[in-house]
Design brief:
The protein is mainly α. It is 43% helix and 7% strand. The protein is elongated, with a radius of gyration of 25 Å.
Length: 117
């Protein structure tokens, strides 16, 4: 039996008296993972880790960030953490173009760039 002391009232309280209610929750670990990472986290990992450096002729991105962005744009819920980690690994201490407030996005839309590939 553990004893706890309340310094204000000098009363000794047992552990059993401290716990009033214990709540048990059941949850689906897969659902929890999808909430944290996004529903298409596995596809994002495949793109960033396996397919990014694979040649375009073999269905990869050929190391081209714009091709990766087009493929990621087709996903509803990509795993943004993995995308950021790949950018940081490729371009240490550099912001992505969309993060740079000084740059102008230009006239080409993202969908036009993807259709050219």
């Amino acid at each position: 039996m553990a004893l706890f002391h309340n310094n204000h009232s000098k009363k000794t309280v047992t552990f059993d008296e401290c716990i009033e209610t214990v709540h048990e929750y059941e949850y689906d670990k897969t659902e929890e993972k999808n909430i944290k990472k996004g529903n298409q986290w596995q596809e994002t990992i495949d793109l960033t880790c396996r397919e990014f450096n694979r040649p375009i002729s073999q269905g990869g991105c050929g190391g081209d960030w714009s091709i990766l962005e087009c493929k990621l744009g087709q996903l509803d819920e990509p795993y943004w953490c993995m995308i950021g980690q790949l950018w940081r690994r490729l371009h240490p201490n550099s912001k992505r173009p969309e993060e740079d407030s000084d740059s102008d996005s230009g006239s080409d839309s993202d969908s036009d760039k993807c259709l050219d590939r």
